[in-house]
Amino acid sequence: DTAVSQTPKYLVTQMGNDKSIKCEQNLGHDTMYWYKQDSKKFLKIMFSYNNKELIINETVPNRFSPKSPDKAHLNLHINSLELGDSAVYFCASSQEWPGHSSPLHFGNGTRLTVT
Amino acid sequence: GDSVTQMEGPVTLSEEAFLTINCTYTATGYPSLFWYVQYPGEGLQLLLKATKADDKGSNKGFEATYRKETTSFHLEKGSVQVSDSAVYFCALSDAASDAGKSTFGDGTTLTVKP
Questions:
Q1: Partner-chain contact A43 B89, CB within 8 Å
Q2: Which 3 state secondary structure label does DSSP give B74?
Q3: What is residue A55's predicted lDDT score, i.e. its pLDDT?
Q4: Counting C-beta atoms within 10 Å of the first and last residue's C-beta, which end of chain A has fewer, N or C?
């Protein structure tokens, strides 16, 4: 059973399109995250939700909008895609509120390529 | 704000060599420290963690000790294998800082040659 699963694994699209990435966790965790990893492997947090409430909202373009229908799901919608959005997007979850000792559990990533 | 500085890569070793990847941190509070490993095409997975000073985390032959006096959490393994080839990330989690979000180092790519 996959603990944190995200779909799709690969996403190739053209500039200007709108796309969504879905994430689900079956660990019973209360907190979920979206991270962006660039081509140099640098990781940057984008958003975090705790029990459906937005708690971390980094400085990302407002073309990126997270949605959490319940605490097991956190989706990412991206409007008007740009070339610079090309990256690998990781969903993650943790048992506790951010800042505590419980580790992050990551999905396998969605590789987004914008042409 | 908090920060994590990792040894720059890439690192290339022969099988059975000794591995050290240095990691130092700055933090507002008393953070928990982690090492994550990312194999090609996969997400990050927890390798080991330590939650207080002098704690030693260990897993799969890897070890790291939380050194508060030197603000370090260096990763070591006595004898690496080809299967250890991956990207390694040092990270901290600090409830006292910036909404508690985790801070990651830039990652160190390790390649082990047979």
A1: yes
A2: coil
A3: 86
A4: N
Q: B95 and A43 in contact by Cβ < 8 A?
A: no
B interface residues, A as partner, C-beta within 8 Å: 32, 34, 36, 38, 41-46, 49, 51, 87, 89, 93-97, 99-102, 104, 106-107, 109
pLDDT one-digit tens code per residue, A47-81: 999 888 888 888 889 999 999 999 999 999 999 99
d(CA B114, CA B111): 10
Distance from CA of A96 to the nearest CA of B (A): 11
pLDDT at A111 over 70: yes
What are all long-range contacts of A24-28, with beta carbons under 8 Å and residues at least 24 apart?
A24/A72, A24/A73, A25/A72, A25/A73, A25/A91, A25/A93, A25/A105, A26/A1, A26/A2, A26/A72, A27/A3, A27/A93, A27/A95, A27/A105, A28/A95
Tell if the CB–CB gap between A41 and B87 is shorter than 8 Å. Answer: yes
Q: Give the DSSP H/E element, type plus range, for residue B109.
A: strand B108-113
Q: How far is A83 from chain B (nearest CA, A)?
A: 21
Among partner residues B51, B87, B102, which is closest to A104 by beta-carbon distance? B102
In this model, does residue A86 exceed pLDDT 80? Answer: yes
- Of A42-56, B14-28, B45-59, least confident by mean pLDDT is A42-56
Does pLDDT of A1 surpass 70?
A: no
